[in-house]
Amino acid sequence: MRAVIVLARLVVLGLFLAVVGGLSNAPVYHRLKPDQALVRLAFSHFGRPIRECHRLSQAELNALAPNMRKPVDCPRQRLPIQVEFQLDGQRLFMATVAATGIWGDGEATVYERFPVNAGPHRLSIGMRDSARREGFDYQLDRRVNIQPLRNLVIGFDPGLKKFVIH
Known about the structure:
By secondary structure, this protein is α+β, with helices and mostly antiparallel strands. It has one domain (2-165). Helix content is 18%, strand content 42%. The protein is built from 2 helices and 10 strands; from the N terminus they run αββαββββββββ. The longest helix is centred in the N-terminal third of the chain and has 24 residues, at 2-25. The termini are far apart. 14% of the residues are buried. The mean pLDDT is 93.
């Protein structure tokens, strides 16, 4: 009787392993079609402060508690960034991204993926991190040839203050 139970367990385990093994190979998952590529927007950026620093007058300093008396009042909070991405004149992405952090003083992060047809394209990306109403503070407009099944990553270099393509 004990041998039958062990044999039954082995059969059930074998069937389970066969099903798991079969599902690990099929169906095949493809992230992209063979004639597609992937464009990624991936960067973090600090927006500008919501207002300029303000030098406090002596009267304003005297009105504060002694431990709060700083000669210059600079806000921590930062403006949101506005990003727009176009490919071949068609807008694929447009967003206003708020600064992170409890005080709204962190970086605004953009991470978006766009499957596109491989080949030559004209890409245009603009970002506004100031209080201006129109136009962009930083902009990239370039023709690129994207290879099939490849990744094209668009980032922002804060040291160079420009968009970069990897």
